[in-house]
Amino acid sequence: MPFFVSAPLAFAPRARGLSLIAALLVVCASSTALAQAWPQRPIKVVIPFPPGGPSDLVMRTVAERILANLKQPIVIENQPGAGGNIGAANVARATPDGYTFLFATDTLLTVNPHVYKTIPFKLDDLKPISVLSSFSQTLVCNPSLGVKTVSELIAKSKTTPLSYASGGAGVPGHLSTELLLSMTGMQMTHIPYKGPAPAMQDVLANQVPCGLLAGPTVLPHVRSGKLTALAVSGQARAPSLPEVPTIEEAGVKGYEADFSLILIAPKQVPDDIVAKFRQAVVDALRTPEATERLRASDQIVIGSTPEQAVAKVAKDFAKWGAVSRKIGLSLD
Fold this sequence. Notes:
Blueprint: H1 7-10, H2 14-37, E1 43-47, H3 54-70, E2 74-78, H4 85-92, E3 100-105, H5 107-110, H6 112-115, E4 126-135, E5 137-141, H7 150-157, E6 162-166, H8 172-184, E7 188-192, H9 196-204, E8 210-214, H10 215-223, E9 228-232, E10 259-266, H11 271-285, H12 288-296, E11 299-301, H13 306-327
Parallel strand pairs: 1-2, 1-3, 6-7, 6-8
Antiparallel strand pairs: 3-10, 4-10, 4-11, 5-8, 5-9
C-alpha cells in the first residue's frame, strides 16, 4: 500500500479511490507547473541579524550572480532581534511559494532552541537546504599573559584566576570556550560583551586576558603582535592564519567547534524550487571571486546538499544542547 494512502481509504469504493488519485494528480501537476514557472518575481532572502555580519556579507557577494542565473533580483532584508528568532519566525510563517528564504548562522537552529525560554516558531516549519560556508573562532590572548600555546594556557589556568571575553551569551565564541573548558578542566570566568569588537578591545587593553573571537576581528592585531593567536576552534586551520593550529592539533583531542551559514526554506516550499534555488546560490558561491572574498573573511565555501545540511544541524543540535545545559545558559 502506498505510504500516502491510509488503511480506510484503501478499502474505499472504486469511484472514491479514482477521485482521490485524480486529486493527487492535479496537486502534483500544479506543483510541477509552479516549479517550472518559478521565479516570476524578486526573491526575498531574510537575514535575521544586523547588516555587516557574515551572512549579510555572503549573500550580498552572490546576489548579482544569482540574478544572472535566475533572471530575478535577490532582495536582502535584515530582520534582527532575539538571536535571529524574529526573522526566522517571519520566514516560517511566509507563503511557501519559493519567494521567501532564510539565511542565518546555524546557531539559530542548533543553540536557540536550547537557551531561549520560548521561540516564536517551530523547528519543523523550516528546512535546511544547504550549508553554504563554515567558519571558526580564534583563541587569542594578550601577550602580557605570557602564553603562546593551548597547553601553556591550560597550565596557567591552574595557578592563576583567568577570564575570557566573548561577543555575548550564547554566541559561537562563548559556546566554543565553554566546550574547551569542559574538555580540559580549565576554569575561566566568562565576560560577555555586545559583539566581538568591544570584546577584542578589552583583550587588547588587557582588561580581560583572552578571548575566542571571530578571525577577521582579531587578525590585524595578531599580525601586528598586539594579540597572540594560540589556536582556532574549527576542524581545519583558518584560511587567514594557516600557521596557527586547530585546538585539536594543539592537544585537545576530539575538540571541534565549526559554525556554519545555512540556507533555509519554509517547510512546504516544493522540492523542485528548493533544488533550483540552492543550485543557483551554490554555483554563485563557487566562483573564484566569491570564494576568495569568503576566504578573506575567514570562511570556507561548502555548498552542501540538503541531506548533509540536515545531518549537520542534527549533530550540532545535540552537541550545543549538552554544552548549554552544562553551563545553565538561559536567555529571554
